[in-house]
Amino acid sequence: MKIAIVCYPTFGGSGVVATELGLELAKKGHEIHFITYSQPVRLALLNKNLHYHEVHVPEYPLFHYQPYELALSSKLVDMVKLYKIDVLHVHYAIPHAYAGYMAKKMLEDEGIKIPMITTLHGTDITLVGNHPFYKPAVSFSINKSDIVTSVSSSLRDDTYRLFDIKKEIIVIPNFIEPNKSSSEEILSCKRSMMAKEDEKIITHISNFRKVKRIDDIVKIFYNIQKEIPAKLMMVGEGPEKQMAEDLCYSLGIYDKVVFFGNSSEIDKILCYSDLFLLPSETESFGLAALEAMACGVPVISSNSGGLPEVNIEGYSGYLSDVGDVNAMSKNAISILSDEVKLKQFKINAKEVASRFDILNIVPMYEEVYQQAIDKY
Ligand code: GMT
């Protein structure tokens, strides 16, 4: 199949999922065309099955806001015609489903029919999309998609609860490549560079937005390091990063925390981590937690959104109510202070992650593409 994938090209989960999906589909022989405003961060090499088409938005002083949706839908029309694309797959409803639908309509005008799949990722529904300023356009473009998928059952239920959706929403969970880390990477795991032999390593990876409750992470770590020698690895960039640095400083733990910024090598950080923290306000899935588990890192998370579908209570980690820093600290200490338990949780985390093997999930998308194409 010839598939156009529209996504955000950044470090955010939806862009990562879209890119990894495209890479795997290309490996399986499909022709993949990424259409976005810059080359997706996880898309390294292009080849005959992997194409990237940049959406240019020329700056024009008349516009206070440059019209990205218009440029994207025009690019989609051109690329569908040029490469004879069979199906459009847009990740994140805003504004991709809206732009995709416009492209569909423009193509229809020229006698070309193309189906559109929309994958909902989370904040496009729960935080941003639900805002009254966007809601009518988001409802409309979801209802006009040929097939709608969501990354968790929780997100599907939230979508039905928050929007007037008349379509079936198919749940296709996010995925990982279980044995992605090469033996070379495992051998070069730099634990000794980051911490002393007796120190436990705790990691958080995100875009440091309010929804991630970054201050809870610092507070949980503060409680842990009072009981157990430990270091905290903070990976990512975002609006809450400065606040986190300031809080570490005022709590007197700045020397125990490493702020990495964005990283394309999270496997190298996860390979020496003992515990992953994700106390988010809401999380449709929690791809970062799954990536940690795939590297054998147990997870202390909140129990909101789709997290209980990924992190299994008392097995791959523990889940607590949002904001319950004490319970999260207690659970973290209970795993980290018991070597036998820690070892077992690491094994369990890997086992749970293997249930989300890319090889089982990608065929679900292929089936959906075929269904959509057959409809036309
Ligand atoms: O919040 C983020 O981390 C970014 C956001 C995105 O849209 O890229 O992530 C959402 O999609 C991910 C991939 O499906 C999910 O794993 C995240 O849970 C989801 N974020 C939220 O729901 C807050």
From TrEMBL:
Residues 195-351 form the Glycosyl transferase family domain. InterPro entries: Glyco_trans_1, Glyco_trans_4-like_N, Glycosyltransferase_grp1, Thiol_BshA. SUPFAM superfamilies: UDP-Glycosyltransferase/glycogen phosphorylase. It holds the Pfam family Glyco_transf_4. Residues 11-179 form the Glycosyltransferase subfamily 4-like N-terminal domain. It comes from the Bacteria. Gene3D superfamilies: Glycogen Phosphorylase B. NCBIfam families: thiol_BshA. This is N-acetyl-alpha-D-glucosaminyl L-malate synthase BshA. The gene is bshA.
